[in-house]
Amino acid sequence: MTRMTFAEATRRALAEEMRRDPLVWALGEDLVQGGIFGQYKGLAEEFGPERIVSTPISESTIMGAGLGAALCGTRPVIEMRIADFTLCAMDELVSQIAKVRYMFGGQGRAALVVRMPQGMWRNSAAQHSQCLEAWLTHIPGLVVAAPGTPADAAGLLKAAIRSDDPVVLMEPKNLWTAEGEVPEEVAPIPFGVARRAAEGDAVTVVTWSAMVPVVEQGARESGIGCDVFDLRSLWPWDEAAVLASVRRTGRLLVVHEAVTVSGFGAEVVARVLEAVGPSGLRAAERLGAPRAPVPFSPPLEEAIRITPARVAEAIRRIAAT
Amino acid sequence: MSNETARRMAMLRDMARIRAFEREAVAAMRSGEAPGVVHPSIGQEAVAVGVCGNLRRADRITSTHRGHGHAIAKGADARAMMLELHGRAGGSCGGKGGSMHIADFAVGMLGANGVVGAGIPIACGAAQAIRLRKEEAIVACFFGDGAVNRGPFLEGMNWAALYRLPVLFVCEDNGFAAFTRNSAVTAGAGPAARAEACGVPASAVDGEDVLAVDAVAAELVARIRAGQGPQFLHARCYRWEGHTGTDAAAYRPAEEAAAARGRDCIRRLAALLEQAGVAPGEIAVVEAEAAAEMAAHRAAALAAPWPPPEAAFSDVQDTGAPA
Ligand SMILES: Cc1ncc(C[n+]2csc(CCOP(=O)(O)OP(=O)(O)O)c2C)c(N)n1
């Protein structure tokens, strides 16, 4: 194990995949300069400008060209800079990439990765802070992953690159410089397998991405025995692990940074309720952002931020139900 | 002082105010007093001032992430802007927007924008509204050289030409799109040729010469007001600072930035004014006043109260507002 940041862990994982497979390449703005979070640093020097491609500010073509390149036998890593800019390429992602295999009767596949760092980061305000994972879990054809630790980010990136399905990787912007233990040899992490971050019998807590460290701390502070799951991937997601836990605890809290309304937490709660029935679920709650854009000013950001204290409070509330 | 000299002194003052504002903004970002990111336009002031000097209050502008200069030149309240980028109550947007989203609708400043190229379609629609309401006004749409590689640029050029809209498109070509030299990611004969291909007549200008920008903008604005449809101005300039206030711009040779500093639009105009008989002391006073004004705004921003937390939930929407 080595301690390293998110940026470094994913940089290494990508470099290893590019060494392993000469058809893996990356495209996006400022990649030759190392990407805006340093997650591509040094890769242009090693792999050259044909495989680490700095593109124009042309999101729809970055995404669409990635698809064309995948249909013709390469494995592109499409870098969107931040998730918000994916909105400039939604047709290419939702109506082209996600549909191409199905619509053409399986003749071709979009074996590609779309990286879109998301969430609040340094008072970036409304157009640079959005969490849009629920938009994409809603789209048939896409695999969606949202890692919360450097090791998982590296392992999921490897799995994404090797996947024959299109995979959207939503890396937490706020954690690029956060450190964690990463194995010397990072193995691909299968999609749909949660990581159990804490064990307990009182409340099942489900989370992902930037909320992982916040929930881990909040669960500790709550003083209540929590079964904490970092889903790591949202589609597919580890229903089996969560259901087994809720069958023991009867209590469920889902925490995500995205707006609560129509967030992926709604899907988790609904599935659990369908599976265990009303008698199997004594309490369920979602903790997410209010249905408001992300404001700029620090005290306003604070007003919508999910903190360990708020997580602990929600856990205690549910445990007392 | 002749009318012409007085007008030039006003341009000098506006450029000095923009520079002083941004020096304070960059310092505030570096110290952490201004949260988030500041994109300075230091060195590019002549474009904003030369264009906006030909606009009236009723005219509208759309701007970019590097928009402080456009806003100040259009007459936006600099104190409210400074409060905004400190996230304070009384800021242009009540602290909700920050540097990248400054807007001052009272003076026709329809907003800086965090999304490259996003102002182009908005400018087209603003021009359509002006026509529909039979207003005597035009729109100036500022964007960077990086924006010409986005789809909305092509769509907007065609749109404006098709409907002969009263829009002045101003491409501020500072050579860089974030950390990448724009020539490395832009093919063909450049922004002006692209505009012309869509039927928008284009002119080019030395964007570090405020008198040149002023002269060509006057001509283009006159054409637009006369109903001749959209015009395009390609203004070549140089971004003295990094992409943001904390980017050291290691991806470009230091001599290049030093050479640009040698072409300083403020010093060039000051030299001409001195030749026209303005005492150097008078120019120094203008610059000192600008510096003092912006320092005072920064001090005011630091002393200003934060917005109340509940402001995070206001102005979302009326129907179905957050509880
Ligand atoms: C659609 C979109 N893609 C990417 C970005 C990230 N970004 C912010 S500024 C910038 C460079 C813009 O270059 P240019 O238009 O030339 O303006 P300049 O920064 O030089 O003023 C980039 C890529 C963005 N804001 N919007």
Word description of this protein:
Chain B: Its cofactor is thiamine diphosphate. Chain B: Pfam families: E1_dh. The complex is a heterodimer of chains A (321) and B (323). Chain A is of the alpha/beta class. Chain A has 2 domains: 7-182, Thiamin diphosphate (ThDP)-binding fold, Pyr/PP domains (Rossmann fold); 195-319, Rossmann fold (3-Layer(aba) Sandwich). In chain A, 38% of the residues lie in helices and 20% in strands. Chain A has 13 helices and 14 strands. In chain A, the strands form 3 sheets. A 7-stranded mixed β-sheet of chain A has the order 3-2-4-5-7-6-12, sandwiched between helices. A 5-stranded mixed β-sheet of chain A has the order 9-11-10-13-14, sandwiched between helices. A two-stranded antiparallel sheet of chain A has the order 1-8. The model of chain A has no long low-confidence stretch (mean pLDDT 97). Chain B is α/β, with parallel strands linked by helices. Chain B has a single domain (3-305), classed as Thiamin diphosphate (ThDP)-binding fold, Pyr/PP domains (Rossmann fold). Chain B has helices spanning 3-31, 45-52, 68-73, 78-85, 119-132, 151-162, 191-197, 210-225, 254-262, 265-275, 280-303, and strands spanning 60-62, 139-144, 167-173, 176-177, 180-181, 202-206, 231-236. Chain B has a 5-stranded parallel β-sheet, sandwiched between helices. A two-stranded antiparallel sheet of chain B has the order 4-5. In chain B, strand 2, helix 6 (151-162) and strand 3 (167-173) form a beta-alpha-beta unit. In chain B, helix 1 (3-31) packs antiparallel against helix 10 (265-275), helix 2 runs parallel beside helix 8 (210-225) and helix 4 (78-85) crosses helix 11. Chains A and B meet through helix 3 and helix 12 of A and loops of B. The complex binds thiamine diphosphate (TPP).
